[in-house]
Amino acid sequence: MNKIKIAPSMLSADFSIFGEEVRAITAAKADYLHLDVMDGVFVKNLSFGPKFIKDARRYTNLPFDAHLMIVEPWRYIERFAEAGADIITVHYEACKDRLKDTLSAIRKLNVKCGAVINPDTDPELIKDVLEYCDIVLLMSVFPGFGGQKFIDSVVPKIKTVSDMIKSTGKDIELEIDGGITKENVGIVKEAGANVIVAGSTIFKEADRGRIIKELREI
């Protein structure tokens, strides 16, 4: 089992003091910073682009986990790599037949890569690209907005993907994103997830270090 890692979703941070928020999350001993990139087309929300990530890099050395919720992500991966992303994940739903080529292109940029699927997507659809992945991200809400309720029906899919990863014999991380709380984090870990994305659960707390420690250890 891969080490449990906590990746705070910076979408829940206060953007008016984003640099300070990045410093605070770094001091709270997060493992990754999860950066939700949204274009208003693939999902019904807008967030930020490569320059925002590049500017944030000045405030931390933590790995940047860039989750691209955008159409035609292959057109932008080089810009996100240059901005400082250490991991770039792209949606099956945005790539379909180009997913394998997109993942390969990310790796050629010396950046870790991964496939993302929405809660209603069959995990079998990404089985053939696992060998190209360093990480697989399962959405436990429909992407676009923070603060949504965890979709319980995703739990069996976590187990399915965990088993698929084990069958490859490769060291591939399994990330879960959406509605994670202290009440359900143990369930997703037991199902096989080892990278836990949490936004409002972390950012609503004054003591970020304590909640990150609790999420890691529950």
Please provide the ordered H/E string of secondary-structure elements. Answer: EHEHEHEHHEEHEHEHH
Number of strands: 8
Oligomer kind: single chain
- Using the alpha-carbon principal axes, give the shape: globular
Whole-number mean pLDDT: 96
Major beta sheet, specifics?
8 strands, parallel
Q: What spatial order of strands do you see in the largest sheet?
A: 1-8-7-6-5-4-3-2
Please indicate the percent range of residues in DSSP E strands (runs of 2 or more).
15-25%
Helix content estimate? 25-40%
Structural class: alpha/beta
Rg, rounded, reads 16 Å
Terminal Cα separation, in Å? Answer: 16 Å
3D architecture notes:
With 218 residues, the protein is of the alpha/beta class. It is built from nine helices and eight strands. It has helices at 18-27, 50-56, 77-83, 92-95, 99-108, 155-168, 185-191, 200-203, 208-217, and strands at 5-8, 33-38, 64-69, 87-91, 112-117, 135-139, 173-177, 195-198. It has an eight-stranded parallel sheet. Helix 2 (50-56) runs parallel beside helix 3 (77-83). The longest helix is centred in the C-terminal third of the chain and has 14 residues, at 155-168. The radius of gyration is 16 Å and the shape is globular. It starts with a strand and ends with a helix. The relative contact order is 0.17. The model has no long low-confidence stretch (mean pLDDT 96).
Keywords:
218 residues, alpha/beta, 9 helices, 8 strands, 19% strand
Give a brief description.
This protein is of the alpha/beta class and 218 residues long. It is built from nine helices and eight strands.
